[in-house]
């Protein structure tokens, strides 16, 4: 069966490592850095990696009447327009060939399935919860590292080194926090702490964010 050609528009003001620069046929991949060009694109699939959860952004994307994928680690599907698919597009995970998706419909759109296969990606459906799976785990690891630093147990550099040597992680928690962005980490921890105080962000982590 012949697979139809599809045009995919990806909005990313800071190019991340989730998808390649180009895709194999039948996908025509277009990377964009500004929202206006992205919204004006005649694409079959729209992937917003700069998604900020704003109501006007949701409306603009919904009005495209096309399959929409948003980098929405912090927002469950109930807070998004119907049909939106969440993706974990945080950078720096150890298995970039595996893509976490959260959605409430029975299946993902054919366009998205074709696109991910063209990128040599395997997708997995994860629970539609704040933080999904890997971001939630990693945010807690990063927070525990900050608490250890706050308590004077060790330096940031020593904690990073210990984690890399002891767990074979590709990066230490402080290196990971820099790559992902402390703002994203604190935002996720704060939301999760509303239900479980164990996620309360480290005082020094919050101060570090305010200092930037």
What do these coordinates show?
It is a single chain. The protein has 212 residues and is of the alpha/beta class. The protein has 2 domains: 6-125, Rossmann fold (3-Layer(aba) Sandwich), CATH 3.40.50.720; 134-211, N-(1-d-carboxylethyl)-l-norvaline Dehydrogenase, domain 2. 38% of the residues lie in helices and 15% in strands. The chain has 8 helices and 7 strands; from the N terminus they run ββαβαβββαβααααα. It has a 7-stranded mixed β-sheet. The longest helix has 17 residues, at 134-150. The radius of gyration is 18 Å and the shape is globular.
CATH topology of the largest domain: Rossmann fold
Largest sheet: 7 strands, mixed
Q: How far is the N terminus from the C terminus? A: 53 Å
Text of the CATH class of the largest domain? Alpha Beta
The SS-based structural class is: alpha/beta
Count of domains: 2
Contiguous helical run count: 8
Helix content: 25-40%
Second CATH tier, the architecture of the largest domain: 3-Layer(aba) Sandwich
Q: Strand order within the widest sheet? A: 2-1-3-4-5-6-7
* The CATH homologous superfamily of the largest domain: NAD(P)-binding Rossmann-like Domain
For the CA atoms, what is the radius of gyration? Answer: 18 Å
**pLDDT averaged over residues:** 92
Strand content: 15-25%
Runs in which pLDDT lies below 50 for 5 or more consecutive residues are none
Total number of strands: 7
User: What's the helix-strand series?
Assistant: EEHEHEEEHEHHHHH
